[in-house]
Write a structure and sequence with these properties.
The structure is a single chain. This protein has 263 residues and is of the alpha/beta class. Helices cover 27% and strands 22% of the residues. It is built from 6 helices and 10 strands; from the N terminus they run βαβαβββαβββαβαβα. The strands form 2 sheets. It has an 8-stranded mixed sheet. A two-stranded antiparallel ribbon has the order 6-7. The two termini are 35 Å apart. The structure holds S-adenosylmethionine (SAM).
């Protein structure tokens, strides 16, 4: 399959055209099984996700990564271990989500399950560090206290370039009606992910020139970020309207990039 293309059709069929061991990173923001959208109506989200994990394990390069988006239970009670390793369950915390629950605690996060095929080959921590909000006095005190890493005593070190973002991501907000990057108000909450969220994943788990697959590409957020970060992209999308929107989005980025070359 050619890179830097979006293919119209069903992921479960299109994926068979991808060569084995050829993809560096998969960003899978498909059905969650919770909304009224036709494409989101899957009878059993865990079985659905296990099926995807099996298909993805064939096409990922050894050491390649998969980030699978869903609700808190999206990989419960399924055995993905014969196919991929789970490295972390990342919580995408959304404190501003409306607290509508009456019978249970309101769910305030999406799960992003981070897998790799064998040991992950790429984790570019320096590209995703976040600000470290520590008072100087606290920092000086901490730096005097020995820390234990792998049984060895060392000094607690602070990195001036920032810290590891950790596995609870509360610093990246969901898009709202006021977000400049929102492409259409109709798509709010059901479709478009913030570029910053996808950017963190792409920076951490791929390098320039790598190939990133988005099997549920929507309005092309992954493609847009790949374009900006010089990664190759392959996308699948079942809705032709979203493919048109993506093409316009990418065309705008290309024009901006060309324009900036002449400045
Ligand atoms: C949550 S949206 C993805 C949004 C995307 N991350 C973005 O920011 O634009 C999921 C997308 O998957 C598409 N989709 C659902 N089932 C599909 C399938 N079996 N094959 C291909 N695309 C599918 C839907 O049309 C929808 O656009």
């Amino acid at each position: 399959m050619k890179v830097n293309e979006i293919y119209l059709g069903n992921t479960f069929e299109l994926i068979n055209q991808i060569e084995s061991d050829s993809i560096d990173l998969i960003i899978c923001d498909g059905p969650y099984g919770v909304t009224a959208n036709d494409w989101d109506k899957v009878p059993d989200i865990q079985t659905y996700n296990l099926e995807l994990i099996k298909l993805f394990s064939r096409i990922l390069k050894p050491g390649g990564a998969l980030y699978l988006f869903g609700k808190d239970n999206c990989i419960d009670f399924i055995d993905y271990r014969p196919y991929l390793n789970i490295n972390r369950k990342i919580i995408w915390f959304q404190p501003s989500r409306l607290a509508q629950g009456r019978l249970n605690y309101t769910n305030n996060y999406d799960l992003i399950a981070y897998f790799s095929k064998g040991k992950a080959k790429t984790y570019n921590l320096d590209d995703i560090r976040v600000a470290q909000l520590v008072e100087l006095e606290h920092r000086l005190r901490c730096e005097k206290v020995p820390s234990v890493t792998n049984g060895q005593f060392g000094k607690t070190k602070f990195n001036d370039d920032g810290k590891n973002p950790g596995d609870v991501w509360g610093d990246i907000k969901q898009l709202t009606y006021k977000s400049k990057e929102l492409i259409s108000r109709d798509l709010l909450n059901t479709i478009q992910k913030p570029e910053k969220l996808i950017e963190r994943i792409i920076k951490a788990s791929s390098n320039e020139g790598d190939t990133v697959l988005d099997p549920f590409s929507g309005v092309g957020t992954t493609y847009a970020v790949c374009k900006k970060l010089k990664r190759n992209f392959i996308g699948f999308e079942i809705n032709p309207k979203y493919i048109e929107i993506t093409k316009e989005r990418i065309h705008k980025i290309e024009l901006e990039q060309e324009y900036s070359l002449f400045k």
